Amino acid sequence: MQNLLTASQMREADAYTIAHEPIASIDLMERAAHAFIERSLALSLIKKDQSILICCGAGNNGGDGLAIARQLYEEGFSALHIWIIHYNERQSADFKTNLARIETLPISIQSFAQEDELPMIEQSLIIDAMLGSGLNKPLSGSWLKVVQHLNQAKKKVIAVDIPTGMPADGHLMRSMTALFAHEVISFQRPKINFLFPESAYFMKRFHVVDIGLNEDFIARQASDFYEITSNDARAIYKERRPFSHKGTYGHSLLIAGSEDTMGAALLCAEACLYTGSGLTSACIPKTGLTALNTRLPEVMAISREALFHQPLKQYTAMAVGPGLGKSQEISELMKRLLAKPAMPMVIDADALNVLAENQQLFDRLPPDSILTPHMKEFDRLFGEHSYWYDRVVKAREEAQQRKLIIVLKNQYTFIALPNGRILVNFTGNPAMASGGMGDALTGMLVALLAQGYRAEEAAILGCYLHGKSGDLLAETGMAVVPANVLIQNISKVMGNI
Ligand SMILES: NC(=O)C1=CN([C@@H]2O[C@H](COP(=O)(O)OP(=O)(O)OC[C@H]3O[C@@H](n4cnc5c(N)ncnc54)[C@H](OP(=O)(O)O)[C@@H]3O)[C@@H](O)[C@H]2O)[C@@H](O)CC1
Ligand SMILES: [K+]
């Protein structure tokens, strides 16, 4: 697990590294510039014959820009042009050093003071090194004008560390102006604000490069946010054991589907199957029986009427919600289920809506139950939120107070734990944005619970594998990954973990 830092904690990590590695601050900047270029080349974001405008401020972000320009020149890039935006009086020491280092080279440099008119932009690519994590207020005046001028040029932009004008943490508002970046190459850790959907106002994609800041120091910093890494998923995953049998891997009960939305139940059951549940039973309406038997012969069916006429303790874990629909019957069913809940539970979709309307049911959920709301379901449960940042803070409060695990689904899914930590899952991609993905995740989570993973482990591993399955399919060239295709890939992803 890697903790994510705020901009001010990152500055402390920078200072600590300089003092303890030890490394001179100017050399750290040199490393950052090198890492920026190396990644840009690896991703084919820049080419030697391309005309590039490097826009620099006069702080350390600008210093990075000058070091990048010089190193690009040394790499054989010849069509380089530099703007220095001199709207602030202060220049950082490392900016000054890098300016002295580049002034002797045959690279054209233009400086702009507050009232200077800005020329048309002829270059095809802009490297944005004007303001970085030192931003301390929204842009205004001449800064606003320069950013608007660059945005209007509609050129491809690669931002150094963070787009100029975008705050690294705190509220992101559409009304803020920043230089829109197609790519951002950020140092050491992603900025927390990259993880919220509002970041799409300011940037398209980000990449993180290691610049060798002191990881021991970083690990010691208190943080609310932790990135789930592939190592974390690998450490949780347990291989199937010799001499094991279906009884070894638990029995999942899914309560899902209605006449019109049997697909949700089928996808949930299929995901449960492919994630390794020993046995899977689906409690579905009678009208869905033929579909279930035809598509998933491995899954057993129970009618809604029969559910409470049999011992529920034969099941190891339960998921309730996908495709249930809204009706009095479903509310009653939830109330009966939660009257004596005795097994780990995943609560999704329509079951979340029942909770939203019957908040007293919250108290009956077994501790560590996993709730899997998307944004709208979350707001129905816990109130409207204008900013994702506030929504995630609320998820943390609720998870802590109610001793539940809240999996707030998003491109970067936030897993809020009862201990107050927020884990962020980085796997997954926009090709997966279609109906049925949530049903698949619920099936995966219940299958992991049934196999004996603790709820926290199931949430981490389930979210990781779900996104990873989608990522591997997208890497094969699939622009869209339907849920049933993702599901059939899960067992392979587990096998190769
Ligand atoms: N951390 C690391 O590990 C490493 C960091 N590195 C790099 O350093 C960057 C951070 O550099 P930084 O701290 O010098 O700040 P930076 O973004 O250049 O801006 C400073 C200037 O902006 C000004 N200013 C602020 N807001 C403003 C506004 N709204 N409108 C106008 N002005 C505004 C502010 O002026 P002030 O308000 O203080 O007078 C100040 O003069 C970081 O992003 C990365 O690129 C790497 O080199 C190596 C390792
Ligand atoms: K920048």
Under CATH, the topology of the largest domain can be stated as UDP-N-acetylmuramoyl-L-alanine:D-glutamate ligase
Unreliable sequence segments: none
The computed structural class is: alpha/beta
Roughly how many Å is the radius of gyration?
A: 26 Å
Proportion of residues in extended strands: 15-25%
Number of β-strand runs: 18
Distance between the termini: 17 Å
CATH fourth-tier homologous superfamily of the largest domain: Ribokinase
Instruction: Assign the CATH architecture of the largest domain.
Output: 3-Layer(aba) Sandwich
Dominant shape: elongated
Mean pLDDT: 96
Question: How many helices?
Answer: 16
Q: How do the strands line up in the largest sheet?
A: 1-9-18-17-16-15-14-13-10-11-12
Can you describe this structure in just a few lines?
The chain is α/β, with parallel strands linked by helices and 497 residues long. It has helices spanning 7-20, 25-42, 60-74, 93-103, 141-152, 215-220, 230-236, 262-274, 289-295, 328-337, 349-357, 375-382, 388-402, 437-450, 455-475, 483-495, and strands at 2-3, 52-56, 80-85, 108-112, 125-129, 156-160, 181-187, 203-209, 225-227, 251-255, 279-284, 300-303, 317-320, 345-347, 370-371, 405-408, 413-416, 422-425. The protein has 2 domains: 11-222, Rossmann fold; 230-495, UDP-N-acetylmuramoyl-L-alanine:D-glutamate ligase (3-Layer(aba) Sandwich), CATH 3.40.1190.
